Amino acid sequence: MKSQVLVDFIADFTPCESVHAEQELVALTKKPSSEKWTLSVDGSSNIKGSGLGLVLKSPQGDILEQSVHCNIRATNNKAKYEALITGLNLAKSLDVKNIQVLSDSQLVVQQMNGFYEARDQRMSAYLTKVKQLQSTFDEFTIQQIPRSENARADALASLGSTTTSGSKLIPIVQLMSPTIQEAEVLAPVDHGRSWMEPIFNYLQADILPGDRLQQKLQNFASSTENFIKNRLQDLI
Question: What positions does the domain RNase H type-1 occupy (predicted)?
């Protein structure tokens, strides 16, 4: 009798296999959350080196921090682009689909939003790289924030620029080479003839402004006119 009671108890309270199968099917086919992740980025460059700071926050409030030490020389603008690219790659590795980027760099944000033109060759290459990464997300926005509101990413960037060894809580990642290689640098952009170009041509190659033959003819005509005037004055 006791044996039968135990068997009946297990039978009554054991879920049906079909219920388990349905739950697993729902979990596999469930669409990923459309809630946005937030990525705060910053880059720092000084005489000690360059560093990148990343703060990735999930919709549930979980925070992933990363400090990157760059074994390359980079200006502040390049470091900020490197931080943005590294942060987007990190988000991609976590299968993030919707992301909002926060940065205190006016140059990077305005170039990404199309309000500033990337005239420098390397800046153009960085912008192209970020645009390619942007296309891999379902939703992507980038917003400029005051530096005071980006203090966490700024502190991580400063940490990466001054040291190569991290703590147990914040390990330092090493960036051994720039994201943009020389082969990816775009061709120089033609912005029209500068007013200084004729001066440089004359100083470097002795090229007169305008057509050289025309200039010589003008000089010859001017000298001939002066010669005739002088001769007339002598005759008078």
Answer: 33-162
Entry pTM: 0.61
In this prediction, residue 166 carries a pLDDT of: 55
Cβ 102 vs Cβ 40: under 8 Å: yes
Q: Are β-strands 63-70 and 49-57 bridged in parallel, bridged antiparallel, or unpaired?
A: antiparallel
What pLDDT is attached to residue 102?
A: 97
Kindly report, residue by residue over 176-232, the tens digit of the pLDDT.
777 776 555 544 445 455 666 766 666 666 666 665 555 666 676 677 777 777 777
| φ, ψ dihedrals at 173, nearest 5° | -90, 145
CB 86 within 8 A of CB 132: no
Q: Which two tokens stand for residue 224?
A: 């001939």
Look up the CATH superfamily of 37-184: Ribonuclease H-like superfamily/Ribonuclease H (3.30.420.10)
Write the CB contacts of 122 (distance below 8 Å, at least 6 apart in sequence).
78, 180, 185
State residue 191's pLDDT score: 47
